[in-house]
Amino acid sequence: MHRRIAILPALIGVAVALAACSTTSLAANGASSATTTVTETRTVLVTGGHVTVRRDDGRPVVLIAAALGVPTTVFRTAFSGVTPAIGGAEPAGAQVQLNKAALLRVLAPYGVTNERLDEVSNFYRYMGADGATWRQAAARATVTVRDGRVASVRLRSGGAGYSSLPTLRVAGYPQLRLSAKLAYGTNLATNGRIAQISVAG
Q1: How far is CA 2 from the centre of its chain?
Q2: Quick one: which of 138, 139, 144 has its CA closest to 199?
Q3: Beta carbons within 10 angstroms of residue 99's beta carbon
Q4: Are 158 and 125 in contact (CB under 8 A)?
Q5: What is the CB neighbour count within 10 angstroms for residue 183?
Q6: For the whole prediction, is pTM greater than 0.90?
Q7: Is there a single domain that holds both residue 81 and residue 178?
Q8: CA 105 – CA 41 distance, rounded (Å)
C-alpha cells in the first residue's frame, strides 16, 4: 500500500511534464503557421483627365462654365455667337468686342460681368496649335497597401484643371484600381480638382 502511494506523485509529475511539452509544441506550431502582414505606402499615379467634348473644339467648357458660375449648356449657347480666332489666340480689336457682346447677352442675366468674363477667358486661354493646354495643377495622393490590397487612401492635393476623369494607378501594384470624383467651382485655383479617391469595385 505504501509503495503505491509513493509511486502516485511520480506519475503525476510525468503527466504534468508531458502536458507542458504538448502545450509548448502547439505554441511553436502556431507561431510557425502565422503569416506576416506586409504594409507599405505607395504613390498614386495620376494621368490624363484633360479630355474635352468634340463639339467644344478643344475648349475646356466644363471648367470655363463652372468658373463663371453657369451651366455648361448656357455657356455653349453663349459661345455659339462667338467668332473665335484660330489656334486659341485672342481675336483682333473689333472682333473681341463683338464676341464679348455676344457672350454677355447670354451670360449677364446669370450675374457674369465683363471683368469676370475677361479673367476666366484669360485664365483658360491657350495655344492649342503649339501643343499647349490650359492651366492645370497635378493632383497628389498616396495609398496604404496591406497584403496587396488598398487599406486607406490619402489625397494630399486635389490639383486643378481636370476636365474629365483621370486614370489612377498604384505604383508597383498594376492590378489595383482606383476611381476619382471631380469637383468644380468658381475658384480658379481649385476648379476641376479631385475631391475624392476611392477603391474601384
Answers
A1: 84
A2: 144
A3: 20
A4: no
A5: 15
A6: no
A7: no
A8: 52
Q: CB under 8 Å to 175, separation ≥6 — which residues?
A: none
Boundary (domain end) residue, out of 77, 95, 130: 130
Residue 94 to residue 55: CA distance in whole angstroms: 26
Same domain, 44 and 30: no
What pLDDT digit, counting tens, does each position of 78-115 carry? 999 888 766 555 666 788 889 999 999 999 999 999 99
Q: What range defines the domain where residue 13 resides?
A: 1-34
Residues 6+ apart with CB under 8 A from 106: 74, 77, 78, 81
Domain check: are 161 and 179 in the same one?
yes
Q: Do both 114 and 78 map to the same domain?
A: yes
Domains: count for the chain: 3
